[in-house]
Amino acid sequence: MLSSLGAMKAMLLAAGVGERMLPLTRLLPKPAIPVLGRPMAVQILSRMALDGISTAVVNLHHQPEKMKALLCELDLAEFPHSCPHGRPVAREISYTDIERMFKRT
Description:
Low-confidence stretches: none
Helix content: 25-40%
CATH architecture: Alpha-Beta Complex
Structural class: alpha+beta
Distance between the termini: 28 Å
Oligomer: single chain
Order of helices and strands: EHEEHEHH
């Protein structure tokens, strides 16, 4: 795993128009299009977190307001281990974090 390298930062490139995915990208920016029930951006950000990325930035251009809304929903999720729509997100959780989540510490 990459997490052994220490704190890492990453950038999710999400500014493209997504012409090859027309007509879907007329309604949503490509990173917001669901694949297997979750927007692509959510899947990528979840994978980044699993790989030890501590900070991620997202560049925007095409339909930025829709991407900002998606990212705000994710940020405001009641449970950080699930997406705003309630679907589970793959995440690595330490034993200490589990103890804290269940108030056993």
